[in-house]
Amino acid sequence: MADKRATIVIVHGAWVGGWRWRGVADILIDRGHHVFTPTLTGLGEREHLNSPAVNLSMHARDIANVIKYERLENILLVGHSYGGMPVSVATELVPEGVIQSIMYMDAFYPEDGESLNDLVPGEPHLPTEEGDYLVPPPRADLVGFNTHMDAAARAAYEERRTPQSVYCYSEKARLTDARDRIPQKTYVLATGYKNDTFRPMAEKLRARPGWRVEEMPYTHDLQHVAMKESADMIESAIP
Prior knowledge:
The chain is built from nine helices and eight strands. The protein is of the alpha/beta class. The protein has a single domain (7-235), classed as Alpha/Beta hydrolase fold, catalytic domain (Rossmann fold), CATH 3.40.50.1820. The strands form two sheets. The chain has a six-stranded parallel sheet with strand order 2-1-3-4-7-8, with helices on both faces. It has a two-stranded antiparallel ribbon with strand order 5-6. Pfam families: Abhydrolase_6 (PF12697).
């Protein structure tokens, strides 16, 4: 157990929900921490709320409202993959001083005016049918960073993924310097796969004052393949 009990908010990536971080959250809770893994609107157990109104701004508000209504203070805020987008915008909505540490775990790091579709290499995330607003998840067996899954794990994973509003990917983040004023800032790069998406972000932040950049030798799904190590890394950023 860590010497200091922390309040930790972990934000999941695209097409999944808070359930994807249950294993890591359980480890951190067993170590004495206060852990929240909110599911963003339209995803996971909240898929029935999907609509064209769901966008990046709404997901940022989801995070800010958990912090507000749970009256959380001295927070370590963690974003994984897509979660880096709403985590960034949420820093604009939370009073200064509430978030004392922020961690991006193999996550998108937008600058002001950038959308996820501006940052992702190759084709942007778009609906498969004209006039639709939902972007279906890519098949796990076609995504290189999911090759660690056996057939049973892949089936369980596929069953619980849900399509996501395109406006989560196309809306541009509107940022001032709220994120920069957070005292502790960490970026974690997964190096166990051909990481063309997140490596440029890690390298950019490695050269930026005030940032700690760490590496983990695992695939993108750190929370699945390295639960204990992911918990350890999160603990390393406790304010």
